[in-house]
């Protein structure tokens, strides 16, 4: 079973996102919980969220993948930045409880010179302050490209965070194909080997969502530049193998490719054709 969708704007509300994705032909989607570059939020209307929940059930959607702001950094060397990140995370997780059973994904953060070990400790500490066993949301750490001082460019770094969180059942991983490729994991020539390594280090049971993107750059470039499916260094045949890999079925696949609405609709229908064997 393939759940496929893309990032949508929340400008017109929550129910509107569900209806838009149904029009696109998809059965999952992602959205930013707040302005991805600035941290501002829009008011949540509970009736609107309830209408979306009804639409999701009626249309048989898979889990949704909300995305935290890019400005949220739980392991910055600046205490003020960490504190702001903690407030963002707290508010986002409270909102997510209005959409029970879905996922909240975020970039682990950049240690900005403190070192990986200190950064990992700060991330885990922040998560332990806010994530509770009774929550209905699964919090996802995203695999990263390893650029600059960002944490999460290796499976081992993500494993270290997961080892330090207290409510382990409330956590998982979002596997970004562009980021993972750019980090040096060869999805073209050794997809089985990469997924086996992920399973050995983290566990495939923790892989809860896939950001499905081609890459503008070569394997190990540490660049983080997304490309449309089949237009980048990973290529269409490898993207098809990833989408159809038995170990990844049942997860939401979210397109973050540089597209307009028509481009996303085309890519969604391409993935659905693959799932039907054409």
Features:
eight-stranded parallel beta sheet; single chain; alpha/beta; 278 residues; 10 strands; 9 helices
Structure description:
With 278 residues, the chain is α/β, with parallel strands linked by helices. It has helices at residues 14-24, 46-59, 79-96, 116-130, 155-164, 177-182, 191-201, 236-244, 261-275; strands spanning 3-6, 30-32, 65-67, 103-106, 138-142, 171-176, 207-211, 214-215, 226-227, 252-255. An 8-stranded parallel beta sheet has the order 1-10-7-6-5-4-3-2.
Question: How is this fold's topology laid out?
Answer:
Layout: E1 3-6, H1 14-24, E2 30-32, H2 46-59, E3 65-67, H3 79-96, E4 103-106, H4 116-130, E5 138-142, H5 155-164, E6 171-176, H6 177-182, H7 191-201, E7 207-211, E8 214-215, E9 226-227, H8 236-244, E10 252-255, H9 261-275
Parallel strand pairs: 1-10, 2-3, 3-4, 4-5, 5-6, 6-7, 7-10
Antiparallel strand pairs: 8-9
Helix pairs in contact: 1-2, 4-5
Secondary structure tally, helices: 9
Largest sheet properties:
8 strands, parallel
Distance N to C terminus? 15 Å
Report the portion of residues in β strands. 5-15%
Q: Can you tell me the overall shape?
A: globular
Kindly state the percentage of residues in helix.
25-40%
Number of strands: 10
> What order do the helices and strands follow?
EHEHEHEHEHEHHEEEHEH
Note poorly predicted spans. Answer: none
Strand order of the largest sheet: 1-10-7-6-5-4-3-2
Give the radius of gyration. Answer: 18 Å
Could you report the average pLDDT, rounded to the nearest whole number?
Answer: 96
Structural class: alpha/beta
